């Protein structure tokens, strides 16, 4: 198995009763980490410069077409949060935060895409809605 992972780069190990996992050569994983870190640093640097910020916002609109339902300042906030989460993923190995940022802003865009639902979301709530089940 290790020989195959070395020659192929990685091997997916499938389990019947458990999540699958990948066996990957450490040197290739280290290169992937360096690549992600480099890309993240470039995006972070671009986000700090006026022309880069404009390009980043255009790219976000292209990659995530649902941002058309967000206000201009919300698109900027999403872009900033996304770049920060990508930086954290690269520098701190916190991969889930990127998907959480995307999911949160996508949910906001989904609500704003339906004017009636958005209006209801802005109305105040009263009372106790009961226990909240948290799943992982």
Number of helices: 6
Largest sheet: 2 strands, antiparallel
- Which structural class is indicated by helix and strand composition? mainly alpha
The span between the termini is: 31 Å
- Total number of beta strands: 2
Explain this structure.
By secondary structure, this protein is mainly α. It is 66% helix and 6% strand. The chain is built from six helices and two strands; from the N terminus they run H-E-E-H-H-H-H-H. Strands 1-2 form a two-stranded antiparallel ribbon. A hairpin with a 7-residue loop joins strand 1 (10-13) and strand 2 (21-24). It is flat. The relative contact order is 0.09. The model has no long low-confidence stretch (mean pLDDT 87).
């Amino acid at each position: 198995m290790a020989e195959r992972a070395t020659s192929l780069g990685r091997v997916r190990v499938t389990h019947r009763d458990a999540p699958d996992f990948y066996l990957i050569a450490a040197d290739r994983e280290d290169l992937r980490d360096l690549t992600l870190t480099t890309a993240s640093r470039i995006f972070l640097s671009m986000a700090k410069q006026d022309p880069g910020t404009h390009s980043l916002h255009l790219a976000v609109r292209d990659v995530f077409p649902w941002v058309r339902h967000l206000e201009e300042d919300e698109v900027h906030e999403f872009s900033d949060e996304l770049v920060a989460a990508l930086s954290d993923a690269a520098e701190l190995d916190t991969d889930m935060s990127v998907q959480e940022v995307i999911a949160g802003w996508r949910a906001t865009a989904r609500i704003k895409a339906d004017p009636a639902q958005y209006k209801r979301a802005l109305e105040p709530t009263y009372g106790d809605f009961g226990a909240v089940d948290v799943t992982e």
